[in-house]
Amino acid sequence: MQYSILLFVSQYWPCERHRAKEHSIYSNRATQRETCLCRINRERRGGAAHSSAVHSSYYHSVVSEQKGEDEESRPEQRGDPQLKGIVTRLYCRQGYYLQMNPDGSLDGTKDDSSNSSLFNLIPVGLRVVAIQSVKTGLYIAMNGEGHLYTSELFTPECKFKESVFENYYVIYSSMLYRQQESGRAWFLGLNKDGQAMKGNRVKKTKPAAHFLPKPLEVAMYREPSLHDVGATVPKPAVPPSKSTEPAIMNGGKPVSKEAKPTT
């Protein structure tokens, strides 16, 4: 009887040697996991230029979700900065940094240290951002014809959806306008000469729409006060000297250029 009990216990109760072996196996697996994580972190650091776009987009989406939850649980305090955004440069795949000139026009620059290329990316919704120039304080907006312009006030035309595309590039599309028939979104974009393009002519699969955010710092922002479209006179986003299309003023209506007198 005693022999049977001992035999039963020896079969189902692990001995010290068996427990030591299991501990060794678990330790080796933990070491392998740590080694794998270290290797992944090194690879991520090596590809920081590409991963910054993903981090930026994910950061804004998380902040936007937290913002929506917090608004239900606490009273609004518009006077205090509550939104976490970033100061960043937007590098277009065409080889230019998006910049806003002092006159409010938009184009691209090769200078990676220009203050005109600094923008505040402010989360104003779930994966929705406002793009504000640090230097001028103007917002980038897109009107109903697809033209880009800059606005002193924050309006629904200043809202852009931020989406991560292939190869970690980010695309920005208008939250208000899109193709009526196909439903295709209108995108922020620069052409090969660094000029701002009409949103309805930019395809998300082309380099013109692909931007790589290069964050410089995290900043706190007050929630912009939303105004109606047309509350302010928009400034043309395309420099008249470089534009191949009419300048845009007065709520997005094209202003015809004066014809030069013939001699």
Automatic annotation (TrEMBL):
It comes from the Eukaryota. PANTHER family: FIBROBLAST GROWTH FACTOR. It comes from Cyprinus carpio. InterPro entries: Fibroblast_GF_fam, IL1/FGF. The keyword Cytoplasm does not apply. This is Fibroblast growth factor. Pfam families: FGF. GO terms for cellular component: extracellular region.
